[in-house]
Amino acid sequence: MSLFKSLFGKSPPKQVVVQPGGEHFAVDAGQTVLERALKEGLAYPHDCTVGTCGSCRTKLLSGRVEAITPFGYTLSKNELDAGYILACQAIPKSDLELEVEIGSDSAIAPLTCAARLVGIDDLTHDIKRLRFQADQPMRYRAGQYLNLRWNGGDAHRSYSFAAAPSADGSAELTTFVRHVPGGAFTDLLFTGDPLAATYEIDGPHGNFWLRDGAADKKAPLICIAGGSGLAPLISLLQDAAERRVRRDCILLFGGRGARDIYAQDEIAAIRNAWTAGFDFWPILSEERHDQYRHGMVTGHVGAALEKLGPGAHGYMCGPPPMIDAGIHALTEAGIALDHIHYDKFTDASTRG
Ligand SMILES: Cc1cc2nc3c(=O)[nH]c(=O)nc-3n(C[C@H](O)[C@H](O)[C@H](O)COP(=O)(O)OP(=O)(O)OC[C@H]3O[C@@H](n4cnc5c(N)ncnc54)[C@H](O)[C@@H]3O)c2cc1C
Ligand code: FES
């Protein structure tokens, strides 16, 4: 037993340094890395806080942690082998050096505001576009998401922004929401009276955004979306097109049938504005049509990478099984996990 522990009855705080930003803090005995980071006021990426969404995925560069819930419930074997942990489940057992991108721009620190639902459009049979009017402008990075509460309840649901951000922030916030039958919020949206409900939004959250530092500038992009997972990719690609990011890109979108294909106008506008090669590959798993590819969306990763050439980076959003299959396909093709970014759209049925 250490001298500190025998004198004071508990382990001394563990020092944690987070790269590449160099943020540092001390974690008390029994506390998780995420718990402490949030108390320090850091915009540490997270969502569920219970080890199921993967948003707090962090690379352990050095040191030892104890997992409250085994990381393997949420992280893939490839991620575990590469040293990733979940900050919300990690209790430091020594001083730690971690690697995760923390939103450091104070202009996009999360804020909470009241909002009205002012527009609902059908995008497909089970996806709607929602337009919220917030009582103050919100800034976010393309690809991030907001948390929504309704009718004064405590529970929140996460929805990705579905449009490029504007520099000064916007009070009109757009999301794409897919119906999950039996789901508390999406049943209200699809079968109740959502316009009569009251809303609170907090955000932005998450670290799904385009890495376009000097080292990434030329890497081709393979983007993979399923269902409403198109929302953050549209936001990210619209923003990249506006900023004239010059990288070849293939956007793969998976649906079951032709009725699942949507947002064609937004994608055509991105393609027109894109300053390098841009392909859109809609892929149907349950129907065959001449104009669409057939099969599971992740089954087309090899062909897309062949077309893009070496050094591609992966960006994915959608249902958890698609993300897991995508991580597998991309890493099998030699893409390092550091170059694979994703948001898993978990819900109560896919957690745990
Ligand atoms: C980072 C992130 C971003 C996201 N972005 C989007 C987005 O842009 N668009 C989008 O459509 N979705 C998105 N999601 C998913 C979204 O947050 C909601 O989870 C989803 O809309 C379902 O909400 P709900 O209230 O309708 O369903 P919930 O009430 O959460 O229920 C979901 C399903 O689970 C079942 N269920 C409820 N409780 C349990 C239980 N205890 N055990 C087993 N099953 C149960 C329900 O019957 C239902 O079928 C995102 C999720 C995350 C984590
Ligand atoms: S916040 Fe850690 S897994 Fe969801």
Walkthrough of the structure:
The chain is 20% helix and 32% strand. It folds into 3 domains: 90 residues, Roll (Ubiquitin-like (UB roll)), CATH 3.10.20; 96 residues, Elongation Factor Tu (Ef-tu), domain 3, CATH 2.40.30.10; 128 residues, Nucleotide-binding domain of ferredoxin-NADP reductase (FNR) module (Rossmann fold). Strands 11-10-13-8-9-12 form a 6-stranded antiparallel β-sheet. The mean pLDDT is 93. It is α/β, with parallel strands linked by helices and 352 residues long. The protein is globular, with a radius of gyration of 21 Å. The protein binds flavin-adenine dinucleotide (FAD) and FE2/S2 (inorganic) cluster. FE2/S2 (inorganic) cluster binds next to loops. Flavin-adenine dinucleotide binds next to strand 11, strand 12 and helix 4.
DSSP strand tally? 19
Distance between the termini: 35 Å
- CATH top level assignment of the largest domain: Alpha Beta
What is the name of the CATH superfamily of the largest domain? Nucleotide-binding domain of ferredoxin-NADP reductase (FNR) module
Taking the sheet with the most strands, its summary is: 6 strands, antiparallel
Mean pLDDT: 93
Please name the CATH architecture of the largest domain: 3-Layer(aba) Sandwich
Rg for CA atoms: 21 Å
Tally of DSSP helical segments: 8
> Could you tell me which ligands this complex binds, including any ions or cofactors?
flavin-adenine dinucleotide, FE2/S2 (inorganic) cluster
Structural class: alpha/beta
Which quaternary structure do these chains form?
single chain
Short description, anyone?
The protein is of the alpha/beta class and 352 residues long.
